[in-house]
Amino acid sequence: MSLDSKIPEGHISEKWTNHKDHLNLVAPNNRPKIDVIVVGTGLAGASAAASLGEMGYNVKAFCFQDSPRRAHSIAAQGGINAAKNYQNDGDSIYRLFYDTIKGGDYRAREANVHRLAEVSGNIIDQCVAQGVPFARDYGGLLDNRSFGGTQVQRTFYAAGQTGQQLLLGAYSALSRQIGLGRVEMFNRHEMLDLVKVDGKARGIIARNLITGEIERHSAHAVIIASGGYGNVYFLSTNAMGSNVTAAWKIHKQGAYFANPCYVQIHPTCIPVHGTNQSKLTLMSESLRNSGRIWVPKKKEDAEAIRAGKLKPTQIAEEDRDYYLERRYPAFGNLVPRDVASRAAKERCDAGYGIEANDTNEGVYLDFASEIKSKGRQTAYAQGNHHPTDEEVIKLGKQWVEEKYGNLFQMYEKITDENPYETPMKIYPAVHYTMGGVWVDYNLQSTIPGCFVAGEANFSDHGANRLGASALMQGLADGYFVLPYTVSNYLADEIRTGKIATNTPEFDEAEKRVKDSINFFLNNNGTKSVDHFHKALGNIMWNKVGMGRNEKGLSEAVEEIDALRKEFYKEVYVPGSADELNPELEKALRVADFMELGQLMAMDGLQRKESCGGHFREEYQDAEGETLRDDENFKFVGAWEYHGSDINKEVLHKEELNYEFIKIAARNYK
User: Fold this and answer.
1) Which of 349, 369, 373, 371 is nearest to 361 (CA)?
2) Which Gene Ontology terms of cellular component type are present (predicted)?
3) Looking at the domain 504-655, which fold is it?
4) Where are the beta strands (DSSP E) in 63-120?
5) What is the DSSP string of 602-668?
């Protein structure tokens, strides 16, 4: 199977328009004859299902939550990018395109990224029309703020709950289609396999998570929008239910899996507090607009803070190391996430960490300077040109509360520390996965009729995602790309008729699912699923995490292989198949994580360079920055499944051609 990315000819600014103009169409009277399955109802899935339903297709939408409103997209706090240049600071479609390519360390497809930048403005218009309550400035116009990796303000936001508000907008559009009968919603259902007929995606096998019933669902096309795979690390900022199963099942049916080693470590998470934690909490990147990141300059001060003998507010300004401002003066605290994360790790590894845990991992995110600055501005605007210090602090806190109040409240509830009075403690944690199912320009995988959207595909971010671009990609795919490209595919399906489910292909797929379920329920193991998931996460974080090297990656491949064998021998799953059984759900998902984790280590091992979130310690420059090898590794690494022995996966390469952007070493200094 060849990797044909189907990138259109022509100038970068005309590719998408010309491509749309020549795609095949399905007439309105023919669309009700065609069925489409959408797996996942986050931003990408909900927007795709709503859009296709609005067009008149019969849509079946599946989510394992009790409602699409529970999708992990709600956790995105900071904002969504769009090139509208409302701030008149030099932004443009090209600038967003360039920043995204550069931010991804020149490992993303030019054509996909430019399309994303082109439709970004339409997303904002769509969401405003849906009633999404974006923040506005004093004149009533939409407000913007800065995010990492850019020198313009292009991030639209709704306080610290942008993802939730955008999802409610998509959910309202989806609910309208459900009410009209064009979308049939299957809550508390999980896709457990893909069904192919004559090589084409023709349906899925799903499990009703309440009753345990195994169901067959057919369609003329299947869209996977099931999110990323960060929970392979066990501890991440992802929701506990987030998993790779839907994407991994189509991989095992022939969809290539691309760049699995590209994982984003987010720099502003609440540090790990103990071995019994089940997930981590993200503090929005938007806080880096106003907070300054620092550690003590003196190791003895860091040691005193860890011992509880010193408070951060007792450290004098001249004794603080604002290390991002020191190392990257042009971008300061708003460098891209991978850069900020590695810088924090470097300081903590050197002994300057401030969190009193076994690893001393933690740095400060301090708002004192912003509180004073905004307090003075507010006082002056009110006519008070000589405010007292108390007045300045009071007004500054009010300004910060208006901008970030729910985030500060969340932090205090979790840590029992008041971030208005004492700096937040943060440390990098797994957040997002840039790798995913390989798709062409039409977002179709290597399985005809199987499309992949949002974080589940690999397409738009390269080796690192800029903040506020995940929401942009998910909604771009669902609202403005898939309605065109899926219709192009379905134009050949109007005479196919209803896809039957009483066929050998559905029989075989259902048998695979039932055999897997029966295996886990009848296994006479002695250890819990979480025992193995934590063990896997420990290997992944230590050897396929922020810092990687050949020795660690090689060990990870072998250790995960051994752990996987022990998992199948020793895992114990209580309960039965015909009931609500969360442990069974977890077992099926962790089985997929085991195989994926091994492939991630293999992918990291073959990529002998550092780029974005993939940092090989052997490949760094004198200042500790990523050292790419553009001559040998300027490609998308797409893996083809060849049986249960993961070592038999075959690597295919899609060369990346940069015609409209000059490749250079990333420089944020």
Assistant:
1) 349
2) plasma membrane
3) Methane Monooxygenase Hydroxylase; Chain G, domain 1 (1.20.58)
4) 80-81
5) HHHHH--S-BTTB-BTTSB-TTS-B---HHHH-EEEEEE--SS-GGG-EEEEEE---SSS-------
For residue 446, the model assigns a pLDDT of 97
d(CA 452, CA 226) in angstroms, rounded, equals 9
Helices (H), 131-273: 162-179, 245-252
Q: Is-contact 302 653, C-beta < 8 A?
A: no
- What's the maximum distance between 2 C-alpha atoms anywhere in the chain? 82
Distance CA 143, CA 149 (A): 19
DSSP letter string, 503-533:
SHHHHHHHHHHHHHHHHHHH----B-HHHHH
Instruction: Let me know: does 556 contact 544? Beta carbons within 8 Å.
Output: yes
Cβ atoms of 654 and 638 closer than 8 Å: yes
Contact 144, 153 (CB under 8 A): yes
Q: Give the separation between CA 494 and CA 110, rounded to whole angstroms.
A: 33
Q: How confident is the chain (669 residues) per 10-residue block, as mean pLDDT? A: 88 98 98 98 98 98 97 95 96 98 98 98 97 94 95 95 97 98 98 98 98 98 98 97 98 98 97 88 94 98 95 97 97 96 96 87 97 97 97 97 93 96 97 98 98 97 98 98 98 97 98 98 97 98 96 98 98 98 98 98 98 97 94 97 88 96 94
Q: Give me the catalytic one of 327, 337, 347, 548.
A: 337
DSSP string across 212-242: --EEEEE-SEEEE-----GGGGSSSSS-TT-
Which superfamily does 31-255+431-493 belong to? FAD/NAD(P)-binding domain (3.50.50.60)
The conformation of residue 196, written as its DSSP 8-state character, comes to E
**What pLDDT score was predicted for residue 185?**
98
Contact at 8 Å (CB) between 473 and 23?
no
Mention every residue, 6+ apart, whose C-beta is less than 8 A from residue 510: 193, 205, 214, 216
What ranges do the domains of the chain cover? 31-255+431-493, 268-429, 504-655
Helix (H) or strand (E) holding 294: strand 292-296
- 228-241 in b/e form (b: 16+ CB < 10 A) is bbbbbbbbbbbbeb
User: CA angle 508-513-517, nearest 5°?
Assistant: 145
**Cβ-proximal residues to 526 (8 Å cutoff; 6+ apart), any chain:** 570, 572
CA geometry: angle 388, 393, 394, nearest 5 deg: 95
pLDDT digits (tens, 9 = 90+) for 4-29: 999 999 999 999 999 999 999 999 99
**Among this protein's residues, is 589 annotated catalytic?**
no
**What residue type is assigned to position 665 of the chain?**
A
Q: What is the CA radius of gyration of the chain?
A: 25
Model pTM score: 0.97
CA distance 59 to 182: 6
Residue 22 zone, left/alpha/beta (φ > 0; ψ -120 to 50; rest): alpha
Angstrom distance (rounded) from CA 445 to CA 452: 7
Give just the sign of the alpha carbon dihedral 57, 60, 63, 67: positive
Give the HSE-up count for residue 458: Cα atoms under 13 Å, Cβ half-sphere. Answer: 30
Say how far apart CA 282 and CA 407 lie, in whole Å.
10
Q: Which CATH class is domain 268-429?
A: alpha beta
3-state secondary structure 357-390: CCCCCCEEEECHHHHHHHHHHHHHHCCCCCCCHH
